[in-house]
Structures are given as structure tokens and as C-alpha cells.
Amino acid sequence: MRTRTGYGVCVRHEKSPRCQETVKVVRCGRDRRKGSVNAAGNGPMRVWNGGVSDLIYILLTLACFAGLALLVGLIDRRLGSPETATDDVADVATDVATDVAADDAAGVSVPHDSQVPGAAR
Amino acid sequence: MNATLAAVLQILALVAALALSVPLLGRYLAHIYTSPQHLRAETVAYKALKVDADADQHWRSYAMSALGFSLVGVLFLFAFGRLQNLLPLDGGFDPLPSDGAWNTAVSFVTNTNWQWYSGEAATGHLIQMAGLAVQNFVSAAVGLSVAAAFARGLARTRHQGRIGNFWVDLVRTTLRVLLPAAFVVAIVLVAAGAVQNLHSVHEMSTLTGGTQSLTGGPVASQEAIKELGTNGGGFYNANSAHPFENPDPFTNLLEIWAILVLPFSMAWAFGLIVKDRRQGGAVLSTMAVLLTAGITLLTWAEMAGPGTAPQLAGAAMEGKETRFGEAATALFAAATTGTSTGAVNGMHESLTAPGGGVALFGMMLGEIAPGGVGSGLYGMLMLAVVTVFLCGLMVGRTPEYLGKKISRDEMVLVAVYILTTPILVLVGAAIALTAPAGLAGLSTDGPHGLSEALYAVTSAANNNGSAFAGITSGTPFWNTVLGLLMLFGRFVPMVFVLALAGRFATANRLPDNAGTLPTHRPLFVGLLTGVALVVVGLTFVPALMLGPIVESLS
Amino acid sequence: MTQTPVRTPEEHTEHHTHVEATPSVLTAEQIADAVPGALRKLDPRKLVATPVMLVVEIGAAATTVMSVLDPSVMGWLVTVWLWLTVVFGALAESVAEGRGKAQAASLRALQTETTARRLHGGLGGAEELVASTDLRSGDVVVVEAGERIPSDGDVIEGVASVDESAVTGESAPVIRESGGDRCAVTGGTLVLSDRIVVRITSDPGHSFVDRMIALVEGSERQRTPNEIALNVLLTSLTVIFVVVCWSLYYLAGYSDAHQSWLVLTALLVCLIPTTIGALLSAIGIAGMDRLVRRNVLAMSGRAVEAAGDVDVLLLDKTGTITYGNRQAYEIIPVTGVTLTGAENAAVLASLSDQTPEGRSILTLVGRSMGGPAEATMVEFSAMTRMSGLDSPGLSVRKGAASAVAAWAKENGGQVPPETAVVVSEIAESGGTPLVVAEHRNSDPARVLGVVHLKDVVKDGIRERFDELRAMGIKTVMITGDNAATARAIAKEAGVDDVLAEATPEDKLALIRREQRGGRMVAMCGDGTNDAPALAQADVGVAMNTGTTAAKEAGNMVDLDSDPTKLIDVVEIGKQLLITRGALTTFSVANDVAKYFAILPAMFVGVFPALDVLNIMRLSSPESAIVSAVVFNALIIVGLIPLALRGVRYRPSSASALLRRNLLLYGVGGLIVPFVGIKLLDLVISLIPGL
């Protein structure tokens, strides 16, 4: 990487800003490239050298996204929309009871406007 | 011209350029995210994709579309990496190893662009153009779409969870914003000297008698979207420190502008979408305050910071390009960590201890100053909800943001959002610093080694992508751990954001009056800044204490 | 004409006092009483509701084990103070509950089982004796003078005076009669005279008194939506800090600065928001208690919270905005008559007038005079619409313009045209004109002047509405008056809007309209026909004098039946939320100082450079950690009085409130622990062996 001093980088670390492997990779890449050219005949075989690990990573990806999809479903069920969100069942029960009582006593119907927030009790 | 004056002038030039472009681009973004009109090209795309472009999606479908689209992206890119030697324009490179291909796939789909490999030595032109660059566009578009959906959710009332159409947002962002913008920036970059060709490696002899290989490629086109989409994945390993990517101080400033312009514009667009420009102004101001603080501290640290070598040399030039100098490197570092870009024009590992700490803290903030495209806006809005909750109580009302009441369920979503990234970072750091495979990747021990590991996990979980370069991350351990952090750090919060958008879209909008906490005044900007700093500070101070803080004080 | 008496000046001033700190001395006795209750609350199953305190308890248990296994002075100090932190938290809640206990005890006394005289088969059936606990809703009972009413119900036959002092604290007996709006009776109250037949409206265990007991004791307290939301935030902060401290073990291990779990537990407890976590439920209970102290019973904490959010207040004109009756405002003499002459005549004419209006004339003129000898008082009647007196040689009359005009004509007099002008002017302004005339000897009767009666707006009510406006609350005056009159009074009182000639349906429609616009509405009412509106309103305060239906429909009952209380209720609701927010801010701000105390102490051994951050110059790492833990525990105790009393609250705009509270509790929360921990360190560093 000394070569890069030509671009004006003050070098102490023999590493790139992103990855120390550069040096190694540059070299290995070269070597491998040669190898790959040499082994061009059986190329496909070399590609699948990591068949098992490929499968593992594909399954890992699918599992992660399945988990995320489950999360979406869970949130949708539990907190999806404000109407279904009742945080205080007992309170709501008394709410209804009071309204019914009021209806009976007053003989006036008190329809509950579900659009209206509030009626907090 | 002395260095301080130059530093101030380039910041002023940047501010001027942003001030001119942000309102215009903001208005344009607001228009495309609310307009019912489709372009003809888009209609064709919808037909091809078989989507009903006029359908208003429930947040659930919106989230599933975004997740499904990203899943396909990951699998596609993974396959691309594994099979690159069978495809044309492979540059003669081998396929990436499984863990590396997966890490890269996740990295580019999550808009992180963490690169364990070096571009010029591992990836051919085809995967750069058709794999990585494509994700540079669409991963940015996904972020912007989600932010737009969140803004629409806040603007709407009684929409029963409907927040817009993901496919429309995606296509419009790509076609109407990112492609034209990237085209223009790429042309300017080419004009200024960046490389754009399909050449393979040139071997050449140097004056000293050695050989040097120069890799050409479609650099400028990728450079443009890399900055505009706050992606950060460089064509070359040296990223924006490479003269083919970033030839001179002008392109340097242009790239910094390109990094910042969309996140800031999205904040402005937010104000327009919710039909209250002042709200967008407040969010934008908070981002600007945090970024300004970051730039100031970083510039100070690099130009006059502590450390024996810098003191002797007069400034910390180690690991910096002489073409740019300390100030321009500090500015770039603050911009790239304040956004989720992660492009670098110098080595962050070689920043002074406080400077590295500021860069690290910028990411820990959750990328909100001004953050990644889209993700910066929704991250900031989530913090705004927390702020409103705390302060709303202090004015004696059930807290509300933009007329949307913040009760238990909203708070649950915001709380888990805020929890996700810190937990990923801290758990990731604890694992990395105990597992032998994690320790093996560190270039040094002691506080700087801790900073290296902490920087890596923070960068991954916050989808930044920059690194303290000493770390050797191309191992199965690091590739897998960081890949998981990137994946969860991107999509888990995104799900919570969309769920909250759905709730807000359903809720009624309460009228505001003198008793409502105003969320557009300087006081609120101050509070939001304070909450961001305190929440993040309290979470990460112990970890920072053992890394950059100890380093700075020693 | 309403019966509400004119309020004394003392009563007016009472209405402008803001929600001041109710005197809340925390006596040693109160604390001692609360200890057993506090210890019972340490059951982890009960602490699950407050995850913050559960974490502290688990931490305390863990440090106990660690200290037993590896004893050290610091270990035991930390352990003891962690346990004390949990106890203090439980104590806060217990003390808050204790304050309602006394009231609950007096209510319980009402519940002594009595024998009820049930009418078998309803009204007209045969009487049978049953235990009051056997009465069911729908049963009909007879209650006579000297007997206690066995259970809640409505009077369906008869009239009686009832002593309700046990429930309301008001010693004057009240009249309860069948039909109309005064038919509701409360179980446990005493019938003083006559005989009434009552239809029971509640089942055993569900009566009004039962509910009151449960409410004042806080035993049935359900956490309110906002409290739950805040708890979510606190829990998430707790989770973050658990992860922070857990990961710090490994990070410190990497840095060769190994930390014991004991120190990390101490750090964890200091960081999680224990202050607000410990005081959260006490704040809620105390909020209800503050209402109880004002004789308002909220049926749920939720209603109190909703009160803080109210955007629109519907206020009945009578009794809330005006004194509830018309009062003499000025006396306008006709040309040629002195003011004194007109006044004297008005006073003479009012001597026999016992109506509030008549008395108000005496009050206005400010002097009384004996009537002439042998005078015959002419009392006001709805027929004559005049009052006055007749004596030999002088007759005076005061009354409705038309009636007096007729009387004057009868006695040979004329009404001057200017009087007609004055009369119509007064009427147009919403007032009531009373014409005064005299008939001396055989002269023709002559008109002396006009008394201007008007609805007098309460002193200070205008300022109060201005404050409400500053708080962002819109006031709407509800009145049965015609539009012109209503507008005149509204203008004078400074309300934002009026609903004139209001019917119960109009009220309900108004509430619905406001709610549809997203606004929260509060109102008060007493009649059966108010019930639907009370039920629809977000905060419905029913008057205790009102009907059962009204009380059931509202979510608060005002035992004093004072409609002005509605404003206090709003202020108490706001104060409750502000107290929560202020203490949360304080609690979180505290963490900054705790970091400065603990983190350098933890790592200074390995990284001496960190000593720079020990800005408090604490004497030793151990002392620094113990000081932070002790401060964390003591601040809970220190803030119990504030939690019970509520933060000081003055109505003002949101921005002003925020600025003030942020300065006090945010900045204060940053500074106080620095001072506190430093002071504690001075003492704790003296402990030998630390």
C-alpha cells in the first residue's frame, strides 16, 4: 500500500479506510484470479465450494425476514389500529354500564359515537 | 489563506449550497409523495410489476411490500456475489465467499454499504453496476418511501391505517428523484475528473521500478448515488479518499453537499406534507444544530486536538489526504457519520481520539443529523414523539404531536423503536469483545481496540457503513454478526415506524390551542436536541468512556 | 326565580384561589401508619406492575446474595440502601393511600347493617322486614323519620328532609321528594322528618358509598392511560440500562477493568428512573385525593386525567357565572326626583320583599329605614307582580313596569315617556327593570324611578376565564335565557361562546359537535335530562343534589353541588399530569450527575486519566458509588411530599408552563444530585472500612 503515497495519503497503517484486508485481498485476489483462470475448465465446481454455507445463509435470510413478517403481524394484531386498542377493559366495562344506566334512567338514548375520542371514565 | 479561514469558507459554501437547494428539492419531494398523478413511464412500470398504483395500502401491506422487496434484493445480490465469475464483466474475480456475499448483500440492501472487501480487488464491473449500484438506488428509495409514508400518516386522519402505496413511492423516488439527481451529479463529477469507463486493470511501472495496477470502471455514476442515497459503498476500497472517486476539493465539497441534501430536503418536505412548514423547519433546525455541533467538534479535534504527534505536527494529518487537509476531512467525517452514508475521504481510525469519538457519537445518535435518506427523518420524528411525551406532561395535557395523541400504544411503538438500535449495538459490542473470533479481527487492544469494535457494531446497527479501518471484518464471524446487526438495525425499526404511521393515519387530529405544546418554536428545537443528546448519551457514555473518552484524556 | 342564596364575599374569594398546594405536612405518624402497608407491597408479584421497582428489588436480592458470599462494608452498604430504595418506593404509595383511609373509615360507619321495611310486591304491597344487605335493585322500601335509608334509591312517594352530612359534610338537611330532580337518596343517610317510599337502585356492594370507599382508599385504582404510557417509557429506559450495565461487564472485562456485578447493580439502580418509578402511583392516588379534599369524587383516575385535557368547558350561567339571581345594580330616578328620593321609595317598597331581588335593593342602597307606623305590607305575588306598602297618606309600589303603570293610572298618575325609554333600554341590555312609584295623600300617583336588576356576574370570574383562555380552554355559557340577554351576560363575563335557550338536546348536540372536532368537553349538570350530555361529555361532573341518573351518567360527583368546581377539576387534572412530567424529567436529569459520580469511580483504577471527570472530587471510588446509591434512595423520600401535594400550578400558556417547569425540574434535576452526592460523600467517607 505504500504505492498510495503517490496519491498523497500519509500512511502509517498499512490499511485502507475500510478494511485492513486490502493488502491481503489485493494479493490473494491476484493469486486467486490466476487460479481461477487456470481452473477455468472446472469453474462451476469451484463456485459451489460453499454449498452448505450458502444454504445456511439463505435460510438465515429467510428466517430473519419471516421473523420480521411475524413482527408485523403481531403488531397489527396487538396495536394495529386505535379502535381495537383497549387498554383498560374494566374501565370500558363500567363505561358501558354507566351509559346503559343513564339510558334507562333518562329514557334518552345515548348512542356512542365511536369516532369520538374520549368519554373517558 | 490560512487553514481556519479555509475551513470556515468551505462550510459557508456548503451552507449556501444547501440553503439554495433544500427548499426547492423539499417542495419537489413533497409534491411527488402526495400527487395522485402518474408519469407514463411509471404506469408502464406498474403494469410490469402488476401493482394497482392507485390502491392505498394499509401499513401492514406497506411494510410487507417493503420487506418483501428487500428480501428479494438480498437473495438476488447474494446470488450475484456467489455467481459473479459466471457472468460477463466479472473482471476475472472469483465469486465472493458465502459469508462475504451475504454480508455484502445485506449491507447494500439495508443502505449500510459496509464493505468487508475492497471493490477494486473483489468485485467486477457487472456486480458493481447491476448489483450494488441498483441497490444504492432502491435501498435509498425504500428509506425515503417509509419516511414519506410516516409523514403522510401524520398528515392524515381517519384513514384506517392506510398510509400510501409502497410501489408508487419506490418507483417515483427512483425515477423522479434519484435517477435525475444522480445523473447530474455524475456528469459534474466526470467533468471534474472522476473516472467513468469499463476498462479492466492497467498494469504500469512506477518511477521506483515497481508495478502498480490501476482499475478503471463506472466510478462516477456509482459515486453520485453513493453520496445522494447516503449509501457510502465505494467503488474503490479507499472510498472517497481515492482520486478516481473524489479528485479535488471541489468534488469533495460537492460530495458532502450530495450527502446532506436529500436528508435535509426530506425534513423540509415533511413540513409541507403535514401542511405546516414550521414543523419541517423545526425538525430541519434540530438536525442542523446537531450536525453543526458535530462539524465544529470534529474540525477542532483534527486541527487542534490532543495527541503528541498532532501537537508536534500542528495538526492531525495522519490518515488524511493532502489534497483535502484536516478541515475538509473533518467536514466529510461529520457529514458521513451524521448521515447514514459511511463514505469516507480519510481514515476514521486515524482521527484524533475526540474526533473519532464525535464520529462514533454521530452514528450513535441514530443517524438523525440529518440522518440517512428517509431514515434520518423518521428517526428524528420518533425522538420528537419522546420529547413531546416528556414535555407534554409538563404542560398538563396528554401529550400530542401534530394533533395526534400519544397514548400507550403509540408509546410502546416509539419505545421499542428507540430500544432496538442501542440494544443491537451494546449486545453486539459485548459479543465482539468476548468472542475469540471477534477479538481476532481487532488490530490493537486497549481503548483503541474497543473503539474499533464499538465503531464497527455501531456503524452496522445504525446502517452507516464507515469503519475504523484497522478492523479485519472479512471473517465469517464478523460478516455474520455485522450482517445480522445491519438487517435488524434497518428493518425492525422500519416496521415500528410504519406501524406508528398506520396508527397516526387512523387517529383523529386534535385541534391545537394555547394549551398545546408548540412543536415549532426554538424552545422545542432545543428540547429535541437535548433529548437526543441525553437519551443517546445516557445509553452510550459507559461504552464511550472506555474507548474514545479514555483515549482523549490520556 | 332560583333559590340559591346570595353568596357571601368570603365565598367569592374562595373561587379564585388556584389549585394551591393543599397543606400536606408529612407527619411521622402518617409514615408510621404507612409502613405495614409498604412492606406488604414488596411482594414481587405486586411489583410487576412497576417494572422499575421490580428491577430494584431483584437487584437488592442479588446484592444480598453477593454480600453474603463475599462480605464487605461497601457490599452491605449498597445492599441495605438498595432495599431501602424499594421500601421507600412502596412507602410513597402507602402514604398516599393512607390519606384516604380516614375518610373511608367514616364512610364505612354508614354501612352498618340496618333493617329495611320492604314492601312486598312493590308500592302498596305488604311491609316485611329484611336486612339492608338483602335489598336488590328494584325493591321498594318505606323509610320514616329517624330511620336510615337502607340503600341508594329514588324517592317514588312522599317528601322528607334528610341529613346527608355523613356523605357530603354539609350539616343542613336537604329535602328529598318524589319526581323531579331531587328524588335521589343515598344509602346510610338519615331521614329527619316525614315518610318516603324509596325504590332501591343499587345491589349490595355496589352502592354509591361502596364506590366512594373504594375510590378514596385507592384500592380499586386502575392505572390511567397516561400513567400506563409513561410506564412504557420508564420500562423501556429500564431495559436500556439493564443492557448498558450488562454489556459494560464485558466491555470493562475487555479493557482489563473488571467490574463486580455488585458495582454494576448499584450503577443500574442509580440509572433506571427509580424516582418517578417509585412515585408514579403515589402521584395518581394523590391526584384523586386532592379532588376528594375538594369534595369531588372522581369515578376513575381516567376522568381526572381527562380533565387536564379539556378543551371546552360548558358552564351553566346560573351559579357558575352569575350569582344565580338578579340583583339591583342601579336606581335611575326620573327627572325632577332626587336619587335619594327614588332610593328611599325603593327601600320602602322592598321592606316586605323577602325575595333575593328585594333584599338586593336594600344592599345596594346600603341603608334601611323603619316603615311608617300603621303601614300595611303588600307582599309580592305572581298575580300583582308588585310589592310595596300602604300607610295612611303614603303608598309605594315597586314592580314590573306594566303592573306599576296600571297601578299609577288607577291612582290618577301618569307614566312619563322617559321611564318607558329607560325600561326598554334595561330590558334590551338583558336586565330586568322594576319601576318604583308612590301615591302621597290625594296627589296623583307618580313614578319616581327605575331599579335596574341584572344578573350580576361573579367577582373575578372574568379574570378566571381569561386564565382559561390562556390555557387554551374555550368556555361556553349555557343558559335558558333568550339570545340577547345571554349575549349581554356573556360579554360581561368574558366567556367565548353562548348557548342560549338551551335544551338538553342542544347541549348534547353541542358536545357531539365539539368532540367531532377532536375537542374534549367538560360540563356539569344535575337533572335527569342532563344525563345524556353528562354521559357524552369527556368529563361530566354531576351535582350531588342531582338525580341518580345524572350521578350515574357523570364521571365525577361534586358533593358540594357547586358548578364552579368544574374549573378546579380541570386545574387538578393538569396539575396531576405536570407533576408526573416534572418528576420524570427530574429523574432522568439526575442520571447525568450519577454518571459523573460512578463511572470515574469504576475505572479510575485502570485509567487514572479519568480522574479529571471526578468533578465532584469524591473521596474514594467506594464512597462515590455508595453516595450515589444513598442519594438515589433519599431523593425518593425527599420528593414524597411533592408527589402528594403536586407541583405548584398557575394557569398559563403551554410555553410559559414548559419554560418554568423545565427550568425548575430539568435544570434543577441536573444540579441537585451534584450537590447531594457531594454532601453525602463527605459523610459516607467517614465510615470506617469503606
Characterization of the model:
The complex is a heterotrimer of chains A (121), B (554) and C (690). Chain A has 121 residues and is mainly α. Chain A is built from four helices and no strands. In chain A, 29% of the residues are buried. Chain B has 554 residues and is mainly alpha-helical. Chain B contains 19 helices and six strands. In chain B, strand 5 (400-401) and strand 6 (404-405) form a beta hairpin. Chain B is globular. The mean pLDDT of chain B is 92. In chain C, 55% of the residues are buried. Residues 1-24 of chain C have low confidence and may be disordered. The chains are: A mainly alpha (121), B mainly alpha (554), C alpha+beta (690). The interface between A and B is large, with 57 and 87 residues.
Contiguous helical run count of chain C: 24
Main sheet specs of chain B? 2 strands, antiparallel
Give the helix tally of chain B.
19
- Which of globular, elongated, flat, extended, rod-shaped describes the shape of chain C? elongated
What is the CA–CA distance across the termini of chain B? 33 Å
Rg measurement of chain C, Å? 33 Å
Number of strands of chain B: 6
Strand order of the largest sheet of chain B: 1-2
**Contiguous uncertain segments of 5+ residues of chain C:** 1-24
Radius of gyration of chain B, in Å, reads 22 Å
Write the SSE topology.
The complex is a heterotrimer of chains A (121), B (554) and C (690).
Chain A: H1 21-38, H2 43-47, H3 51-79, H4 89-106
Chain B: H1 3-34, H2 40-49, E1 57-58, H3 59-83, H4 98-109, H5 119-122, H6 125-155, E2 162-164, H7 166-191, E3 202-205, E4 211-214, H8 219-228, H9 249-273, H10 277-304, H11 308-313, H12 325-338, H13 353-364, H14 375-394, E5 400-401, E6 404-405, H15 408-432, H16 436-439, H17 446-461, H18 476-506, H19 522-553
Antiparallel strand pairs in B: 1-2, 3-4, 5-6
Chain C: H1 9-16, H2 28-40, H3 44-47, H4 51-69, H5 73-108, E1 115-120, E2 126-131, E3 140-144, E4 153-157, E5 159-163, H6 165-168, E6 174-177, E7 184-185, E8 190-191, E9 195-200, H7 208-217, H8 225-254, H9 261-271, H10 274-293, E10 296-298, H11 301-308, E11 312-316, H12 317-321, E12 322-333, H13 339-350, H14 356-365, E13 376-378, E14 386-391, E15 394-400, H15 401-410, H16 417-428, E16 432-440, E17 446-457, H17 461-470, E18 474-478, H18 483-493, E19 497-499, H19 504-516, E20 521-525, H20 531-536, E21 539-543, H21 548-553, E22 556-558, H22 565-603, H23 621-645, H24 654-684
Parallel strand pairs in C: 11-18, 11-20, 18-19, 20-21, 21-22
Antiparallel strand pairs in C: 1-2, 1-3, 3-9, 4-7, 4-9, 5-6, 5-8, 10-22, 12-17, 13-14, 14-15, 15-16, 16-17
Helix pairs in contact in C: 2-5, 4-5, 4-9, 5-7, 5-10, 5-23, 8-9, 9-22, 9-23, 10-22, 10-23, 11-22, 13-14, 22-23, 22-24, 23-24
